[in-house]
Amino acid sequence: MTGAAARNEPPAPTHNWAALAAEAGSDVNTRFGHRLIGLPGTWIGSLQAPPPSGSLSTGSATAALAKKRPLPWTEMPWSEWHYWWQSHYLDAIVDAGNHALTQEDAAGARRELRLGKALLRGILIRNFCRFPNHYYDDMAWLALAATRLNELSLHLTSKPATLARSAARTLTKQLHKAHDPVLGGGLYWSRKRDYKNTPVNGPAAAHFARIGEHQIAGAVADWLRSELFDAETGLYQDGIHPSITGRDVEATIYTYNQGPILGALLKLGRPQDLIDAETLIDAISRHLHTPGQGLRLEPGGDGSLFTGILARYLALAAQEDRLPAQTRATASDLIVQTAATVADQRPEILSAAIQRWTILSAAAAI
Questions:
Q1: CB of 178 closer than 8 Å to CB of 136
Q2: To the nearest whole percent, how much of the chain has pLDDT over 90?
Q3: Calpha distance 194→1 (Å, rounded)
Q4: pTM score above 0.85
Q5: Do the domain assignments include residue 5?
Q6: Domain membership flag for residue 154
Q7: Domain count, the chain
Q8: Mean pLDDT on 39-56
């Protein structure tokens, strides 16, 4: 594996990634973030940005309501609700807090910690005052983010973030319930228990490894390698349905499915895990990357988060001394090229705005 120079690719433009990441975070918080139904101590992200003030006639009822920042439809119990988008919003806030710590900006880190706590409280209330939901992949994403928020609090204040710790414990118990020996192991995607897929098993393995439950983390990572690894591409397929024939594989390859598996492999750190991480990064570079443009960007609402998730875990790989220097350089190149592609975007949906923030934060971290 080699870096961009050895592949004869043009170098990515020079940017101040930290400044761009800070701008992206401010954009998300300003255009999408707000208190949940006005409740003090809460925060939530609207699914869509409000229309520009200039696009409304000043005399219209809509314009008058916009000036008062109306309660978005996402706050209503009957409205569309994307639990996992909010989980990645929380992850992006923790990224910003950790970056502030690296810059010895304790005040900035404390601001992000407060905002993260408020967002987690907003998620809890909006999810009918409970953290579990129907989908185990949603719960895995929030377990990861809540654990990171608690770690930020411990690092910054030497005290746990009580709600984050409670969320992580509650969701970890749910993830254990999703794991059984059907199809040789792995976790179910939802409470229907009719599909085992990479979107839950990747983040669950990463979460278990992060909290020190290495036995189950290793078992899940090994199950993914055995059941959903595509030897032809070197990438992980989407999932398996139990069937009368034993297994029906959904062979689609998504960018985001590769990210948390990479994170799990790095955290587990067994010799074979590090070899597998190296070969996975090479496969990502060969199959999910356009030279000069970066990682493949997925379409759609949910899809608009996918590449940001992969970038977050590639940033961990880029800083991992146990990986070969060329592998780290490849991970860095993928992030920087992707960051250059999204740097000037101004997304109108929350998922894409969080993805832009996440990618730019990954570039700032390497």
A1: yes
A2: 86
A3: 39
A4: yes
A5: no
A6: yes
A7: 1
A8: 84
Instruction: Provide, rounded to the nearest whole percent, the portion of the chain with pLDDT above 70.
Output: 89
Burial (0-12, 13-18, 19+ Cβ within 10 Å), 214: middle
Residue type, 297: L
CA distance linking residue 235 with residue 222, whole number of Å: 14
Q: Quote the CA–CA distance of 104 and 285 in Å, as a whole number.
A: 34
* Maximum alpha-carbon separation in the chain: 67
Q: Measured between alpha carbons, how far is 359 from 348 in angstroms, rounded to an integer?
A: 17
Confidence of residue 238 (pLDDT cuts 50, 70, 90): very high
Residue 350's H or E segment, with its range, is helix 350-365
Residue 125 lies in a domain: yes
Q: How many whole angstroms separate alpha carbon 38 and alpha carbon 51?
A: 20
Band of pLDDT at residue 243, cut at 50, 70 and 90: confident
Range of the domain at 135: 32-48+72-177
Q: pLDDT confidence of 1, banded at 50, 70, 90?
A: very low
d(CA 347, CA 242): 38
CA-CA distance, 101 to 111, in Å (whole number)? Answer: 11
Instruction: Return the SS3 of 14.
Output: coil
Question: How many Cα atoms sit within 13 Å of 121 on the Cβ side?
Answer: 18
Residue 78 is assigned to a structural domain of this protein: yes
- 220, 201 Cβ separation under 8 angstroms: yes
Place of tokens 């992006």: 92
Task: Give the DSSP letter string of 257-314.
Answer: HHHHHHHHHHHH--HHHHHHHHHHHHHHHHHSEETTTEEPPPPSTTHHHHHHHHHHHH
Strands 289-290 and 294-295 come out as antiparallel
